[in-house]
């Protein structure tokens, strides 16, 4: 009987809360809120809050057109693999103190899964045979190389603080990071980690592919770039992947720096969703509204100097015990 209850509890966590259902609801909410906030900051009315849902359903109703020169199998498989990777990533993000999946090295797993999601975009654009997609995939590779270094440095800095008392002196477990914050307060209050928190806020829009770091799509330059040849169901999957990535990256910031636990799971979920909205506004909506799109070389230089520098400062401070 206990085994049955354990399996039932795991299924509830995976499919409902804090799993897939919660992820999809908050993902579409964040996408709609972002578009609404950007419109307001630009003195526009903006679309309704549920516009991302309408766009997704509309794409599902459109015909899927596959280019004549495309690699059909890879062209169709890439969006499926991309959606699957970000949805599995969301299952590792703790909401309060609960996560559907948990392991000793889950921060590393999340890093690899997010990289896989970006690789699927490259795979799909390469399979399309489009010259616009070819330019887009090269830009996507530059983006990946740009933000991965500061991202890893942020994870190391947070892991060092939360795992200072462990045998390794560093932890790669969200459970350990959550436990540390439950006992000592949120890591955003740790002065040495403030540069890393700022670096993480700057990593988020490039990882998601949001303006001003959407160099791989750049509608006015390369006609949607990596998504130039996609339509119908495959395009809907890529749009869904983008929305879920917004939730995953905002949730990742909350898990690393703002993991608030009240002991009531439902209340933790509400607080987590609200914090994700705040992080989305600060890291994605504001830069989108006030900044022009970066050039490719500007993105690389910005992340390997300013953003990586901020993360490295935090890593040095926490390694020195400050």
For the record, give the distance between the C-alpha atoms at the N and C termini, rounded to a whole number. Answer: 49 Å
Secondary structure class reads mainly alpha
Query: Number of DSSP strands?
Result: 0
Helix content: over 70%
Q: What does it look like?
A:
This protein is mostly helical and 322 residues long. The protein has one domain. It is 71% helix and 0% strand. It has 12 helices and no strands. It has helices spanning 2-15, 20-41, 51-60, 72-92, 106-128, 131-162, 174-184, 194-208, 219-222, 232-257, 265-290, 296-319. The longest helix is centred in the middle third of the chain and has 32 residues, at 131-162. It starts with a helix and ends with a helix. 49% of the residues are buried. The model has no long low-confidence stretch (mean pLDDT 86).
Helices and strands in order:
Elements (H helix, E strand, L loop, with lengths): L1 H14 L4 H22 L9 H10 L11 H21 L13 H23 L2 H32 L11 H11 L9 H15 L10 H4 L9 H26 L7 H26 L5 H24 L3
Helix pairs in contact: 2-10, 2-11, 3-10, 4-5, 4-10, 5-6, 6-8, 6-12, 8-10, 8-11, 8-12, 10-11
